[in-house]
Amino acid sequence: MKAIKAALIPLVAIGLAFMSGCEGRHSSKEVFYLISANQALPYWQSAAVGFKQAGAEYKVTARVVGPDGHDPQAELTELNNAVAAKAGGILISVADAAVLKPGIDAAVSAGIPVITVDSDAADSRRLYFIGTNNLEAGRLGGQRIVEKLGGKGNVVVFTFAGQPNTEERLKGIKDVFSTHPDLKIVDVVDIKADPKTAFDKTQQYMAQTGPKEINAFVCLDSASGKPVSDAVARVSGSNRVVIAWDVSPDTLAAIKAGAIDSTVVQKPYTMGYVGLKALDQIFHDAVVPNKDFSTDPFSPYPKFVDTGTSLVDKSNVDVYIAASAGK
């Protein structure tokens, strides 16, 4: 019996050492950054919650930084600050690829892993992209317009010009409309992150009648859906179709009230949550990111992680309202 106990002691010691090693894998000294495009939006607040939740689970420091509006230069400043602070990894939404690509490349050259989220910079040296398949999301919204208008009508689109994700969404809509020649996009409005621009332009278009009447408004960002629906509601008896983006409380309430037909839903919480865990894995694997993995058939990284897209309308809006209330 003594011999058995003696044999067990080193095994227990090894087990305890292994457990201690697992618990010691993470530290609050490990700092990861989420650089968002517009912290004032509920969309990015949800992404921040997911990022911080993953950080709490791993017991690392999760910092969320970025401007309160659409400001690529401010994002670049935060990116440079994170590099100077020797971040363990950076998750960034790319408001303007031309502005942010040099900073992303510099971070990777410094040995800091960078993953893009929500909006990509495909030509940069980022490791990969986590977010929505924005081309397919645009097609989903475009198909909804086809169904609601019967394949015929005039459409106005609201967007952020130059932002890679909204450009992909617009392309998706155009792909769908290309097989419906009686559906026409008569204007693509760059709201420049100002919801009031969306409201004012909608009011102008609501005054048009006859052949120039606008039959549908599509919002490719999370900021313009509610102001567009408010402007439409000011015209008594209007039957214009409004398609929004994302699931802010105002958007969901407007769908339930019938002011917005539907919204294309992304999963920003998941983007933030998965993003931090991915950065942590890369950090602890000590894989040098300063390499072009896109041409490596044995790359340890995917090209793209699709976090999913769906359509919310009156038939399922209560499910999303309940889910939002639970967070």
Task: Write a concise synopsis of the structure shown.
By secondary structure, this protein is α/β, with parallel strands linked by helices. The protein has eleven helices and twelve strands.
Q: N- to C-terminal separation?
A: 55 Å
Instruction: Name the beta content range.
Output: 15-25%
Number of domains: 2
Number of helices: 11
Give the low-pLDDT segments.
Answer: 1-22
Write the CATH fold name of the largest domain.
Rossmann fold
The overall strand count is 12
The secondary-structure element order is HEHEHEHEEHEHEHEHEHEHEEH
Structural class: alpha/beta
Radius of gyration: 23 Å
Mean pLDDT: 90
Question: CATH superfamily assignment of the largest domain?
Answer: Response regulator
The CATH architecture of the largest domain is 3-Layer(aba) Sandwich
Trace the largest sheet across and list its strands: 2-1-3-4-5-11
Which geometry do the CA atoms define? elongated
The CATH class designation of the largest domain is Alpha Beta
What does this structure look like?
This protein has a six-stranded parallel β-sheet, with helices on both faces. A six-stranded mixed β-sheet has the order 7-6-8-9-10-12, with helices on both faces. The N and C termini lie far apart (55 Å). The chain has 327 residues and is of the alpha/beta class. The chain has helices at residues 2-23, 42-58, 72-84, 97-109, 134-149, 164-177, 195-206, 225-233, 249-257, 268-285, 317-325, and strands spanning 31-35, 61-65, 89-92, 114-117, 129-131, 153-159, 183-190, 216-219, 241-245, 262-265, 304-306, 310-312. Helices cover 46% and strands 17% of the residues. It has eleven helices and twelve strands.
